[in-house]
Specification:
single chain, Lysozyme-like, alpha/beta, globular, six-stranded mixed β-sheet, 2 helices
């Protein structure tokens, strides 16, 4: 079972079993070089790291750590999300925006506390609207490409 219903569960062993002592009020999003969530979870397991969610290049969302737990190498006041591979695909952008809107609503997190890596900064434009980036909308700073089917 996952906290975000469209997500697939792929548990990581790298989390603290104790429930969080405080409610998280931040979300950190990173771009990672790993091509797939499976690769990211496997490689990060070796260095005792984890994220709550990973987003594959085809837009699939994978949950590795339940939101009620703290991933190792993280802080209890934040959720961690990794976007796998570069450049960011349109499918990843749509999935990330959908996940963020859901988490922000469920956990009462304001956009100012959503921290995006610089290559994902464009996502902040869509957090408080019902719109998504268009596939054709690809300014060089947004680095979105269409996922292969």
């Amino acid at each position: 079972m996952t906290d975000f219903s469209p997500a697939r569960a792929l548990p990581s062993p790298n989390f603290i079993h104790a429930a969080r002592g405080m409610l998280p009020n931040k979300i950190n999003i990173y771009t990672v070089a790993y091509k797939t969530p499976e690769e990211a979870i496997e490689r990060q397991a070796a260095v005792r790291m984890a994220m709550h969610y990973y987003i594959a290049q085809d837009g699939e969302v994978v949950q590795a750590v339940a939101e009620e737990f703290v991933p190792l190498a993280s802080s209890p006041d934040r959720f961690e999300i990794a976007v796998c591979g570069e450049p960011t695909t349109h499918a990843q952008a749509v999935s990330l925006i959908t996940l963020l809107r859901d988490m922000m609503k469920r956990h009462h997190i304001v956009p100012a506390y959503v921290r995006l890596s610089s290559d994902l900064a464009f996502v902040s434009d869509y957090l408080t609207t019902d719109t998504f980036p268009e596939e054709e909308e690809q300014p060089p700073t947004k680095r979105i490409k269409k996922a292969r089917t």
